[in-house]
């Protein structure tokens, strides 16, 4: 495996076929660290395109990493994609990669932990993403979500399925990629003043509590939490992330309550805030590293590390996605224009 090299000249804009969306700066940094080769700034940018870009390659794929402006959410993501496609007109597939809030459900077999990875994958009537704040209220006052968004392109679904099968025979390359970037980008793994590094944050800092339990605001450790309210989970052998496949809940609000999490997130594995703005037009796979449990203990301790785990999975996914099949797809900008 190769680590990120020094910058090489940017290619012509039409040579880039993969659009990688990162909402936060910490997600963009993790994405850039996963590039096999980083390219210089774009040779040209549309006058109405205000995105910041990091260009590079992973395997045989030329990748555009677009970071969102200071605002985030579905509208910001949709605007960023529209501007990106005005500059990079040959993009065919998309990845939305970053952090998310986990929806653990041990009864249904979803033992999701901090540091784990969730990948959108169609299940039942869902196309991989459910917009939980789009729907109707019935006569009985019950809200029924109706935002079941489109599936990713077949090329990416095939790659996801191939990885899922491969990981039944041998471990994921995610831990290996994390070790590589720790060597090639050591600064990322040094604790920063006022914030965590990209290191794993320790199993002792991953505890799940009953949905009804209210944590005191501002807590940064579990010392003052009621241990009787903790959910008992079987120990894991190591801290390598598990990879979960299924439906992701997307919406325009931050979930910070366990009971609300369980009510809105039925049949889903995690929450995030950008996919609902993208996936009906810009078809992509959503990859989220789990940084909290969308409850009242929500904090930023795990965000950097899980941004890196999600980016590592995205790299592994591109490594098994055939460039030939990507180039055979219609351009994303053309697909969107034909829908309007």
Automatic annotation (TrEMBL):
Recorded coiled-coil stretches: none
Entry superkingdom: Eukaryota
InterPro entries per the UniProt record, alphabetical: NLR-like (IPR053137), Nucleoside_phosphorylase_sf (IPR035994)
One GO biological process term: nucleoside metabolic process
GO MF annotations in UniProt: catalytic activity
PANTHER family associated with the record: AAA+ ATPASE DOMAIN-CONTAINING PROTEIN-RELATED, ATP/GTP-BINDING PROTEIN-RELATED
Protein name per the record: Putative ankyrin repeat domain protein
Organism: Lepidopterella palustris CBS 459.81
